[in-house]
Specification:
GO terms for molecular function: dioxygenase activity; metal ion binding. The protein is an alpha+beta fold and 343 residues long. 28% of the residues lie in helices and 19% in strands. The strands form three sheets. Strands 1-2-3-11-8-13-6-5-4 form a nine-stranded mixed sheet.
């Protein structure tokens, strides 16, 4: 099997359009990777997400981050309950740390060198949907909203096929997760890692610090600059170099919990290139992450056939809000306009 470091590359076409036997064999490959590594790369996903759409998503991501700062700040992320809007460089510090003071110290001493744009489902279907609205640059970038909403839905469909593959291989029924993720309570995150002086690496900064993801599965679309590193079973970080025309898939904390630790949510980070002159600038890097989550009211408890439960049941929304509140600083301008904000 082809791999990038410890991350296997799996052809997903047989699951999407193959015979029942080919479908089951591919599902077993996914399950093996999810158990042993927690990461994999999928190729040949064009039946759900074509290459032209991915290329256009990267183009629009760059165009968004090239907007004037005053435009982006008008769209700023305000609170974990919303989890929508623009997050300026240095405001978030992803980490496994849970102590608020320790996270604040990390954010000051070794910030994540990135800016992001967070996008959720853009419509409400019922009272359990999030009441918060996306924040769009409609005047400055009029076709951004329409494209990103379509891209969001295609990512949902691809994530659903991955969840079906895992369910099939686990023997719980291919459509087990369908009604439990139907709300589309996901987070589409556009990321821009601006060029910075390589000397800043010496101060302990990373593009994104060591962390695991919070939800069920993450789909990561990367450019070819690279920087993703995955922690192996011995605690060493191993580069997962980009492979053209693939999407990186990793298990999140909620899916590990849901699977009663059968599936593995693996620590990873995004590093800066350490070679070359410290006075040189690093190259710009863009990536797009789709953090898929169960529906907000889905109760996460041990899946059938996974043994005695190791965790107490938890509702999706409560878990996600807690984790997001720990890692991203509240807007400093929020209190000044509290009457205008739903947060």
């Amino acid at each position: 099997m082809v791999s990038s470091g410890i991350v296997p590359v799996i052809d997903f076409e047989p699951f999407l359009s193959g015979t029942p036997a080919e479908k089951e064999a591919t599902a077993r490959e996914l399950l093996k990777a999810a158990k042993e590594v927690g990461f994999l790369m999928l190729s040949n996903v064009d039946a759900v997400m074509d290459k032209a759409t991915v290329a256009e998503a990267f183009k629009k991501t760059q165009q968004f981050f090239d907007l004037p700062m005053e435009v982006k700040e008008r769209l700023e992320w305000e609170c974990a309950e919303s989890n929508r809007g623009y997050v300026a460089e240095g405001r978030e510090r992803v980490t496994q740390e849970t102590d608020p003071e320790a996270i604040a110290k990390l954010r000051q001493q070794a910030p994540d060198f990135k800016e992001t744009m967070e996008i959720g489902k853009d419509y409400r279907e019922g009272p359990d949907d999030s009441p918060y609205e996306n924040r769009w640059p409609d005047a400055e970038f009029p076709d951004f909203k329409t494209f990103m909403n379509e891209f969001f839905e295609k990512n949902h469909q691809l994530h659903l096929e991955i969840m079906r593959a895992l369910a099939l291989a686990m023997g719980i029924g291919e459509t087990f997760f369908d009604d439990k993720v139907a709300q589309r309570s996901h987070n589409l995150r556009l990321l821009n890692y601006p060029p910075i002086e390589k000397a800043k690496i010496l101060n302990g900064g990373n593009r994104a610090g060591s962390h695991s993801d919070y939800g069920s599965v993450t789909l990561l679309w990367q450019d070819m600059v690279g920087g993703l590193e995955v922690q192996d079973k011995d605690g060493h970080f191993v580069p997962a170099r980009p492979v053209a025309d693939t999407v990186v898939v990793n298990v999140g904390d909620l899916l590990q919990r849901w699977s009663n630790d059968v599936l593995k949510s693996t620590i990873h980070r995004v590093v800066l290139p350490a070679d070359g002159n410290p006075d040189e600038m690093t190259p710009r890097r863009n990536s797009i992450a789709f953090f898929s989550n169960p529906s907000l009211r889905t109760v996460i408890s041990a899946l059938p056939g996974t043994g005695e439960p190791k965790y107490e049941p938890v509702e999706t929304e409560a878990y996600l809000v807690k984790r997001l509140s720990e890692t991203c600083a509240r807007s400093p301008r929020l209190d000044a306009r509290a009457a205008e904000s739903p947060c």
